[in-house]
Automatic annotation (TrEMBL):
Official protein name in the record: Basal-body rod modification protein FlgD
Pfam families according to UniProt: FlgD, FlgD_ig
Source species of the chain: Neogemmobacter tilapiae
Alphabetized UniProt keyword annotations: Bacterial flagellum biogenesis
Domain FlgD/Vpr Ig-like stretches: 101-168
Amino acid sequence: MEITQSLPQTRTALETKASINADFDLFLKMLTTQMKNQDPQDPMDSADFAVQLATFSGVEQQTKTNQLLTSLQGQIGMMGLSQMADWVGREARSTAPVWVDGQPVTLSPAPAQGASRAVLAVYNAQGQLVSRQDVPVSSAPIEWAPTDAAGNPLPQGQYTFKLESYQGEEKIDTKPVESYATVVEIRSGAFGTMVVMEGGAEIAASAVTALRG
């Protein structure tokens, strides 16, 4: 699959750069006009001229600094993409929605401390509960078969998982369950490096907790 890079600048950064450049051009025009139209019998005071030149230099420096920061931002973004190129095609573990197409999905449950029972709850892309089943009270990975409560195959689509932890009959915790999904794209944008999973789910690279394959 393809690794792409979005424009590294945010809209705010672009607007700021345009504003600085516009101010710089306006300042230059005003200073040139002032020098052309000054009274030959009463020319601009040298001290005033020095102050304006200093201001001119400051505006120019600000523009160059802004352009340099923009360039560095782009280079850092490319560095991140290059380092993460081998993620594409591998399976990443996260709490992002996973694409289900009939094949088992590897889940990594994390029951609450002291739990005596754990229940896996499965939700479809519309947030509807489609399955609940008891699972071992363990953090060991499990292979979940994509079926509903009656054992019927679930339709193709995106699903999310939650683990309900119980002490006796009392529910003491509910948390998202991490699952493995194939990485199809690495994308750099305004909010950092993003990982795109099979089925279109997109998460920050920092949300990935493990890789395999």
